[in-house]
Amino acid sequence: MPIYTYRCASCDTRFERLVRGDTTVTCPECSGRQLERLMSLTARPGSTGKPADLSRLGPPAGGGCCGGSCHSHSH
User: Fold this and answer.
1) Which of 29, 48, 57, 67 could serve as 13's disulfide partner, Cβ 3.0–4.6 Å?
2) Integer Cα distance of 12 and 5 in angstroms
């Protein structure tokens, strides 16, 4: 279910919509249906010019799902 950016040809409003299947999209301002789907830019890791710090992803350093402190199951 992608999020698309649209521009209304009638009133020039720009907006985003989450589109599911055969959803009919209309302008939130004027209910117009003549819409132009615009190119959307997505954020990506490291887009600030620095390499992305992915060191915090994955299981905690202590091991297990929560470092062994949840006591809901054995690690």
Assistant:
1) 29
2) 12
